[in-house]
Amino acid sequence: MSRHVFLTGPPGVGKTTLIRKVTQALKSSGIPIDGFYTEEVREGGRRTGFDVVTLSGERGPLSRVSAGSSTSRCEYRVGQYVVDLISFEQLVLPVLRNVNHGSDAEKNICVIDEIGKMELFSQAFIQAVRQTLTGSGTVVLGTIPVPKGKPLDLVEEIRSRKDVEVFNVSKENRNSILQDIMAAVESCRK
User: Fold this and answer.
1) Structure confidence at residue 13 (pLDDT)
2) Dihedral angle at the C-alpha atoms of 100, 145, 3, 119, nearest 10 degrees?
3) Which of 175, 190, 188 is nearest to 21 (CA)?
4) Taking Cα atoms as reference points, which of 9, 13, 28 lies closest to residue 182?
5) Whose CA is closest to 52, among 74, 37, 71?
């Protein structure tokens, strides 16, 4: 019996777009939902980083393209991006802590988009995600990257959980999979 729903697929395939569509549909039917998604930041047609956007509308930087090679302070990097761990944790941790107050009768939904390399620099985030997954009053609707290179412990842990249903999003199915995801989330709330 699934308690959580995760989407996976290659970068740019439409996971966040689907999450946002599901979120809108659930919100409009009055279901309690909170969480965050990541959105790319573009300047002059090129991607310069990612922002974290909470469902309550707060926004802050997750990462930005590194301007130079400043190695003076401790930096968390993924490719060309420097991760702003403080900004990420300030936005996301309160959301994850507050969402855990659902009940078995009225399960809250928590959107976690995404659990990826950048986010996993935060030990507090890893801990909060684990707590949210084990809490009985919350259904997690999240995204995880496809396995590539060195496995990410928490991602593989989620992928292999018995109470998680994983949808593989592709260019072929992304326009037809919405109803299946909605149905899966609805059945997790029962």
Assistant:
1) 95
2) -10
3) 175
4) 28
5) 37
Side-chain-facing half-sphere of 121: CA atoms under 13 Å? 19
Token pair 């707590």 in the structure block, residue: 131
Q: pLDDT averaged over consecutive 10-residue blocks of the chain (190 residues)?
A: 95 94 94 93 93 96 80 76 95 88 74 96 96 91 93 95 97 96 94
Side-chain half-sphere of 25: how many Cα atoms within 13 Å? 13
Q: Sign of torsion, CA 21 10 94 61?
A: negative
Closest CA to 96 of 109, 83, 79, 82: 109
Q: How far apart are CA 167 and CA 121, in angstroms?
A: 25
Residue-level pLDDT at 72: 47
Amino acid at residue number 5: V
Q: Contact at 8 Å (CB) between 55 and 111?
A: yes
Q: Residue 66's Cα: distance from chain center in Å?
A: 23
Q: How distant, in Å, are the alpha carbons of 51, 65, 130, 186, 190 from that of 106?
A: 30, 41, 20, 12, 9
Distance CA 92, CA 178 (A): 25
146 DSSP 8-state letter? P
pTM of the entire structure? 0.93
